[in-house]
Amino acid sequence: MEAETNEPEVQSFDELDLSPVMRRAVAKAGFTKPSPIQGELIPLALDGMDVIGQARTGTGKTAAFAIPILEQLDPLEECRDPQAIIVVPTRELADQVAVETQRLAEGVPTEVAVLSGGKNMNKQLRQLENGVQVVVGTPGRLHDHLQRGTLRTNNVWCVVLDEADRMLDIGFRPQIERILRKCPRDRQTLLLSATLPPTVQRLAESYMHKPTVIDCCKNEMAVETIEQRYFTVAQDRKGELLERLLDREKPEQAIVFCRTKRGTDRLYRKLARSYDACGSMHGDMQQRERDRVLQSLRDRKLKILVATDVVGRGIDISTISHIFNYDVPQDCDDYVHRVGRTGRMGRDGVAYTFVVPGEGDVLTSIEQRINKELIRDTIEGFEPMPKPQPTAVEDAAGEPVVKKKLNPMHRKIKRRRL
């Protein structure tokens, strides 16, 4: 891999080598100043280089790879086969990326097809037959089309792997490798990932040509514009606390995260009795219903969405002002992605996490992950719960619990005892 770039921050889209049509589209889409990932990735991509971009969600990375692709597309009349393939981990993110790409193509007719599971296969086949320039899809469905011979890749000059770490985590490596092998060897490859674990690095070494690495995650694990707080609460009082908080905060729009599908349904029914414009979403729902719920959220017809981690990644809705972790996520990365649904593109946001007795270690792990202590909040009737008594082992040994060893890049965070 090439050394990381260290370019000065780009202050305006006028500094980038964009066409007048694209500059107008960018302005109409509401972009004023390039985000760090946009300022660094766009020039490299326009130069045809392979790039590994490390950036968290909510930083404008979709536009960072969509803009250079759109700038270099041949008209449909000249090439009816896909020229760029964007691979993403989820159906929801595929829809989101396609919408953003079409928005940035303002003024230039551009055919974008979404190939993901849960969508009508015949409709996808018709789109491909009629001609498309950009394909956005999930690894499984893209692989299906390759096996059928319905996705032609001879003219693909750019492949984007968005949220590569997530795709490898959930077992899509074989499908991703098949997609990459089917595309021309002289293609451009852009890999976007919040983290760069060994699995991602090995993929890059095998399928990318001297990629330049840009890291926009430095010092950004805890999003500065997101206020992060927690409550200690008994399990059977969570619902009451949530309603009190909703009444106090009056969120513009909020997502309430639950751990299970059953818990999501149960909490939704409870909230729907007291609050209008409330919806729910989880993995057991039909794709058509999930799409309807998300569109209602984007159209601001929904004010409160109760959901599992199915919406923890890839949903970019700037009006989400509050996140409520009704159930503490067991995986620290899930916490980062849940909280990342608010505070999008520099807007303010607030996240509340409900912690029950016995979950102190989980809270500590989250704080170590983001390198920041969450603020303990209170509300009348929900004062901080007393600390639990030491365990029998601690009594017998007379020693405190051994602190977890931290990465030397982290500052020490005191172990939570709830």
Explain this structure to me?
The chain folds into 2 domains: 13-215, P-loop containing nucleotide triphosphate hydrolases (Rossmann fold), CATH 3.40.50; 226-397, Rossmann fold. It is built from 15 helices and 14 strands. It has helices at 20-28, 36-46, 61-72, 91-104, 121-130, 139-148, 164-169, 173-182, 198-207, 238-249, 261-272, 287-298, 332-339, 360-370, 392-397, and strands at residues 51-54, 84-87, 112-115, 134-137, 158-161, 188-193, 212-215, 226-232, 254-257, 278-281, 304-307, 322-325, 349-355, 375-376. The strands form 2 sheets. Strands 3-4-2-5-6-1-7 form a 7-stranded parallel sheet, with helices on both faces. A 7-stranded parallel sheet has the order 10-11-9-12-13-8-14, sandwiched between helices. Helix 12 links the parallel strand 10 (278-281) and strand 11. The protein is globular, with a radius of gyration of 23 Å.
